[in-house]
Amino acid sequence: MANKNRPDGTGETGRGKQLGADIRDDDLERRRRDLEASLAARRPERLEGKDDAKAGGATGYGQALKLSSEFVAGVVVGVGAGWIFDRMVGTPPWGLIVGLLLGFGAGVLNVLRSAGLAQEFGQRANPREPKK
Amino acid sequence: MAADKVDPIHQFQIHPIIPLHIGGYDVSFTNSALFMVVTVVLASAFLYMTTASRSLVPGRLQSVSEMAYEFVGNMLRDAAGKQGMRFFPLVFSLFMFVLVANLIGLIPYFFTVTSHIIVTFTLAALVIGTVIVYGFAKHGFGFLKLFVPHGVPVYLLPLVVAIEVISFVSRPVSLSVRLFANMLAGHITLKVFSGFVVSLSALGAVGVAGSILPLAMAVALTALELLVAFLQAYVFAVLTCMYLNDALHPSH
User: Fold this and answer.
1) Are A65 and A110 contained in the same domain?
2) CB contact under 8 A, A105 and B150
3) pLDDT for B223-246, tens place per residue?
4) What are phi and psi of B29, to 5 degrees?
5) Which of A101, B14, B115, B195 has the smallest count of CB within 10 Å of its CB?
């Protein structure tokens, strides 16, 4: 479709605009696909099989305990760190508040990590690299 | 007496067998310590005796020992690579200790060492201590790169690093809490259902007929607990391997 209106210079503006919009549409489409592909590559593969597939019975129970312990541990450590900071520096209650919020963040990060949805420590998500 | 029987927490009580006080500290030899000794002796004796008269074609028990070795060896090699094998003694000891402690805890009237958080936390602290000491010894301050993810904008860095540090510190906590909670919850459930059997069958013929249900449940739960005992030892060892991997290669 590009070579159709290339030779004549007359209909340049009208068609050109349309063409430009076309290209932008194409471009957007391509970029969206690229983004999806790179997001998929960036996302670490889930731990297949044992952990996710059979969510019933003992495995589901184990998974639940695993994830909840990860989250609780993050919050507990955050609060503990904030509280100790307060005790040492004498800034209550700010250390506790900040520690609690950071702890929630760390807890969520822990859960995402242990569910295989976030990258591991200090790791750049790289699909070539063997996981785990 | 009857209240004692259905009290599901009673089994976790620690009581001294040989009272001992040194310098104001209570270091009595307790039932917990006794079962730790039993665990260690049992695990070592099993591994020693099954491999003492080893043959090229392994017998049944010898192949159990070899399977345990290869299981942990493969796990460690997968998670931490060839260099990880220097930690094999640590990981194998931890795995065997937790596994045997979980398994003998299933025997009635036996004490479950791993149902106390102080025991599991000590094990987890040992792991994380090894990671930190080895990480700093091998990489110096490069080990701290572990807390700095790639490609994070500078203005977000303090926040992200703080969260990463908390996340790292929470690892031994979640490691110990998971093992302890699994063991505690499992044993309490088992005890509660067994308690139903006892109290129902005290009601006469109808009660005895009714107690079949909780009895079946207790049997099923025992099988589940056997699975959990193995699974938790496995999870503990796998996570140990993954943490050791961080000590070996802090930045990929």
Assistant:
1) yes
2) no
3) 989 988 998 898 899 889 888 888
4) -80, 105
5) B14
Q: How many domains does chain A have?
A: 2
Residues A62 and A109 in one domain: yes
Nearest CA in chain A to B241: A132
Q: Are strands B29-30 and B25-26 parallel, antiparallel or unpaired?
A: unpaired
In a domain, A132, yes or no: no
What is the distance between the alpha carbons of residues B58 and B51, in angstroms, rounded to a whole number? 9
DSSP secondary structure string, A40-106? Answer: HHHSPPP-TTTTTT--SHHHHHHHHHHHHHHHHHHHHHHHHHHHHHHHHH--TTHHHHHHHHHHHHH
Around Cβ B72, how many Cβ atoms within 10 Å?
A: 22
A92, part of any domain: yes
Is B220 an interface residue toward A (CB < 8 Å)?
no
Domain shared by A97 and A62, yes or no: yes
Q: What is the DSSP string of B117-169?
A: HHHHHHHHHHHHHHHHHHHHHHHGGGGGGGGS-TT--GGGHHHHHHHHHHHHH
Tell me the HSE value of A26 on the side-chain side, using a 13 A CA sphere: 6
Predicted TM-score of the model (pTM): 0.75
B76 to chain A: closest CA residue: A132
Residue A36 in any domain: the answer is yes
Q: Which two tokens stand for residue A99?
A: 């520690």
B10 CB contacts (<8 Å, ≥6 apart)? B4
- The Cα B77–Cα B72 span in angstroms is 9
Is A40 among the domain residues? yes
| ipTM summary value | 0.70
Prior bond of B19 cis (ω within 30°) = no
Q: Is the pLDDT of residue B1 over 50?
A: no
Min Cα–Cα distance to chain B from A25, Å: 30
Answer whether B218's CB lies under 8 Å from B193's CB: yes
